[in-house]
């Protein structure tokens, strides 16, 4: 430390001497680089001011006594800034530790989501889910059974961050314990609703949409618990239609009945499930229209489902200046044949 | 009539020249000494980024006047370097005080009032930053 | 802002004038208070230095030109500190937001723990559980059935903070789904072990002890999955004995067999379950001995179980300078009659 | 021979007197100007805490010598005030920069090398802090 101090003293002395003589921008540039070095060595601002004074005293003979006195006062004020600086260093350490903790937790959370490809030729499935922060309050799900039936879901915990993530993991464990309802969207939501109502404070809500596709019937069945409506794309007419939704959000009341809807899918038709992080994408002071979202999806409809989702995300991320305001989840399921 | 300056960056001398040009224009526009130093630091960081990551590029500095007649200084940093892969990550609030990359882009964003970034992999980066006179 | 700046300028000018004249400690005291005010107004250190220079220029006629020049350089260096200061302010905001998020999550976590009193006259139960940070990786459980049988447990996720808390909530949901094993400690641990092994990364482990007390037989049955041994206090001999423990931690291997132990309890005897946050209580550079913990418990044994736990916690907290290194959980179950 | 000073705190004048005594002793022991200012600030905060929360109390300041012959300054703040309810909470890293309570006790702990606190509800508080000469 003493050595550092000495070399700091030397460099600063050279800079100050040179600057007083030449007033060159080069000396100021060095000073800026020097400040980075000081900070890397965790020197606080009052030490900087004190260093300045001692160098200055040495360079200028007979510094007026009031100049020196004035530095006493400046130093006194800078002690407060020094404390804030030290607080910053410890806050930074704490934040780093928390960040790495949240990274681990986010990895754990990610491991709760499906990550294998669906091996069903009849359909093409793509999904992008990106949290606004480290942890996500969005949840998605997909699964195929031995008959090629497919279940898909998107859920959104009202709220963000760690508490939302904890709710989300509850949804996952609850889904695990309901294997019998995987092909019955309304019954599944009714059961989940009971679990949520029992376990979660009344000020936490979860919206969810669950659907199944039966490849032999070409029918998509779905039910929604207050979730942001998805889209149905019909290839024949090249149009997007909102997925009808009715139904209370999960967790409000222990006994809720959900309505089931169905859609007939032709080859090339696709279903879009999403969270409101997609549709309530804010640009400056207004939100994108839902019709803007569907045309954005339409722009990439010739691509595989995964590529559509990725391209839409990339464009929306850019429009928002790379700062997501809410967790983003977009899931696309297309009938191939 | 608006003043425009272009500085080629391909050595540390270029960085110093860009700083000098920026400080001069900032003073002429009427910025106080703290803001002059802030603008200069922002230019310095932008130029240094070019020098370190793209090897060469340009810094353009000009006076701007908003529709409400407010004056400001606009700095544009352009290079044909490797581009930025994950802009979201680069703009994440790093920890300046831990050094390494220095103030970096989040620092520049803090020092100025407006900030935007355009980058394409293998095709270079363009960063525009404005500071308005208070 | 302009007004603030002006009044700041005025106060600082008065201080500096007075200090240069009198060199009084009072002016320095004012300067320190002033620095707090500056910081409350989010003024950064380079603004402080610049304020100092402009005031100084006004007070002292014909300031030597090199003094002014020297301030250019100091200002340049301080810009870096100013950036760090602004970063601090935004880090502080982020930390505050995160803190309030963690508060919500901690409340959610707390709601997963039992909070009603046990209504069984035959026993007296007390528990204190305090996380080292906001969230806990310790878990405790107690429950009585309609026959007055009591189940108690303490678990500790290896690791701390958010990821540990997420594991802990999984333990709770898994316990909920195993109502049949509540009176069979070994079977319960075997089932839990399967759930943990399935859901958790191989680098996460959970230790746990589970026990049941049957008031008609006066027998305490328990099994342990690599958990810190508890104590059995025998009133007749006034001695503490370690609770025997054998058994692999949860989650290492999907199929593990746990051994069940039993203890005959007389009136006044009690069981102590704890997490290693109690026993591995560090003081400066050494750990407390287990015998020191049991004598500490013994010191308060005349009190109700809840009071014993609270007093022990208070003493251990103080010895550690009020900084817990690990989550702390201490559960005491005493046979009354 | 060790120097000891006691200052009664029951007004802002007491705070200033304690600061002055502390700064003088710190200088005599051989602390540099930054450390003098830090020690003074710590004393100031301790005295202010007494003044604000306990109304009155004392600050004791003395030179200390460690077993390895290292010199230092020890500050003890004593009051018979209401005591501190939740020491863990008070010592939690507050946010100095957001003001209100000022640097507070975590600040004092930062400014000094050693710090300990004893407090009993309704029976007062005793805080001891030491800074060693480097
Ligand atoms: Mn959400
Ligand atoms: Mn949302
Ligand atoms: Mn643990
Ligand atoms: Mn532990």
TrEMBL record, chains A, C:
SMART domains associated with the record: PP2C_SIG
Q: Name one GO molecular function term.
A: phosphatase activity
Q: What is its EC number?
A: 3.1.3.3
Query: Domain PPM-type phosphatase, which positions?
Result: 124-335
Q: Which InterPro entries match?
A: Bact_Sigma-Reg (IPR052016), KaiA/RbsU_helical_domain_sf (IPR017944), PPM-type-like_dom_sf (IPR036457), PPM-type_phosphatase-like_dom (IPR001932), PSer_Pase_RsbU_N (IPR014787)
What is the main EC category here?
hydrolase
| PANTHER family to which the protein is assigned, alphabetical | PHOSPHOSERINE PHOSPHATASE RSBU (PTHR43156:SF15), STAGE II SPORULATION PROTEIN E-RELATED (PTHR43156)
Gene3D superfamilies of this UniProt entry? KaiA/RbsU domain, PPM-type phosphatase domain
Alphabetic keyword roster:
Hydrolase
Q: What is this protein called?
A: Protein serine/threonine phosphatase
**Pfam families, alphabetically?**
RsbU_N (PF08673), SpoIIE (PF07228)
Automatic annotation (TrEMBL), chains B, D:
Keywords attached to this Swiss-Prot or TrEMBL record, sorted alphabetically, are:
Kinase, Serine/threonine-protein kinase, Transferase
- Domain Histidine kinase/HSP90-like ATPase stretches: 34-134
Residues making up the signal peptide according to the UniProt record: none
Q: Name one Pfam family in it.
A: HATPase_c_2
GO MF, one example: protein serine/threonine kinase activity
Record's InterPro entries? HATPase_C_sf, HATPase_dom
Mind telling me what this protein is named? Answer: Putative anti-sigma regulatory factor, serine/threonine protein kinase
**What is the source species?**
Evansella cellulosilytica (strain ATCC 21833 / DSM 2522 / FERM P-1141 / JCM 9156 / N-4) (Bacillus cellulosilyticus)
The organism's lineage?
Bacteria, Bacillati, Bacillota, Bacilli, Bacillales
